[in-house]
C-alpha cells in the first residue's frame, strides 16, 4: 500500500474512533486537555500551603481510581471494537440461501465481469443511493427485495440492515459481502478507478466498527466516504473537490435523510399514500403474500406516522416539516451553485448521486411533489436522473478491457 494511503487510513480510523470517544475535546487528547486545564488552574492560583498536600494526594488517588473505574465501565459498554462478525467480508455461498431475484437489471455495455446482487428495500434511501451509483456506472445486477418485517432474505448474515451487496467471485472463493451504502459506493468507485487492486482489498480499507448500545449493536465503517486511490498522481479530481464530495455525501446521510420520514408520513393520509406507493414500486404484490402486504401497508403507515412525529422532534425539524425539506433542497442547490450543472461539474459526482438517491426514495410521495413546486430542485434532479438512467458514468470505466486477474461471470462453476 502506498505510504500516503496508509497514512490516510490510519488517520481516518483514528479520527473516527477518537471523535466518538471524546466528542467534545475538539481533537485534543482528553488526557492532555485535562493536563493543560489542571496546569492552568495551578499556575493561576497560588501554590497550596504544605499541610494540604496529603489531603490533595488522597483526593487525587480516590479521584483517579473513580476515573479509571468509570473509564473501564464506559469502554466496556461503548468501546468501538473490531467485531469479527461484522468485518467478515467473505461469506460462503452455502450460508446464503437462494432467493429468486425480484428484478434483474441488465446493461448491455457492462463488461465489469462482476456478478452483483443487491439486497434492498426498494424505497430505502440508502438502497436508492446504491442503485443510483450502480445504474450511473452501468452495472448489471440482481435485486432481492427484503421483507421489511421478517427480513428472512438477510437472515444468513449478522448484519441487520440493507443495503447489502454480494459480489460473487470465481470458483470456490467465498463471495464478497459489502455492507453499508457508503462503503458499497466507495468500494465500487475505488475499484472502477483502478481495477488492478481487488475488490476484497478495497473492502479491507473500510473496517467495520460496532458500538454496543444496551442490547442493540450500532454499526459504522471507518473511511466510508473516502475513495481509495492507489497512487497520488494523475488523480481525476482535486483535493478540494474530493473534500466537497465527501462533505455532501455525509450531509445526504446525516441531514437530508432525516427530512424524509417526517415529510413522507406527515399525516395519516400521506403515510398511507406513501406505503401504497412503496408497495407499487417495490412490487410487493409479486414478492409478498396479500396478508403480508396489508400488514406492512397499514401497520407500517400507522407506525411510521408516529415515527415521523418522533423524528421531527429528534432532528429539530420546523413546525411545518415541509419547510425543513425545502431548506435542505435550497442548501444543496446553493452548494452546487449556478455555474455548474452538477456538483461534480459536467457529470454528477458521488455527492450528486447521494442527494439524488435520497430524494428519489420519496419521488412518488406528496412531499417530493411539494418540493418540486416550492423549490428549484427540479432541473438539477431531472438532469441527475437522466444521467443515472442513461448510465452516463459507464463510459469510459466499463468499456476498459479487464486485467486478467479479474474473475469473469463465465468463470463461475
Ligand atoms: N448506514 C447504513 C444505514 C442503512 C439503514 O439504516 N437501512 C435501513 C433501511 S432504510 C434498515 O435496514 N433498517 C432495518 C433495521 O435497522 O433493522 C447505510 O448507509 O447503508
TrEMBL record:
Residue ranges occupied by any GST N-terminal domain in the UniProt entry: 114-196
Keyword terms of this UniProt record: Fatty acid biosynthesis, Fatty acid metabolism, Isomerase, Lipid biosynthesis, Lipid metabolism, Membrane, Prostaglandin biosynthesis, Prostaglandin metabolism, Transmembrane, Transmembrane helix
Task: Spell out the molecular function terms from Gene Ontology.
Answer: prostaglandin-E synthase activity
Question: Keyword Membrane on this protein?
Answer: yes
Q: Which InterPro entries does the record cross-reference, listed alphabetically?
A: Glutathione-S-Trfase_C_sf, Glutathione_S-Trfase, Glutathione_S-Trfase_N, PGES2, PGES2_C, Thioredoxin-like_sf
- Show the segment(s) annotated as Disordered: 391-413
Q: In this record, what's one Pfam family?
A: GST_N_3
The protein's annotated pathway: Lipid metabolism; prostaglandin biosynthesis
According to its UniProt record, the EC number is 5.3.99.3
Q: What PANTHER family does this protein's entry cite?
A: MICROSOMAL PROSTAGLANDIN E SYNTHASE-2 (PTHR12782), PROSTAGLANDIN E SYNTHASE 2 (PTHR12782:SF5)
Q: Which family does it belong to?
A: Belongs to the GST superfamily.
What protein name applies here? Prostaglandin E synthase 2
- Recorded source organism is Candidula unifasciata
Q: What taxonomic classification does the UniProt entry list for its organism?
A: Eukaryota, Metazoa, Spiralia, Lophotrochozoa, Mollusca
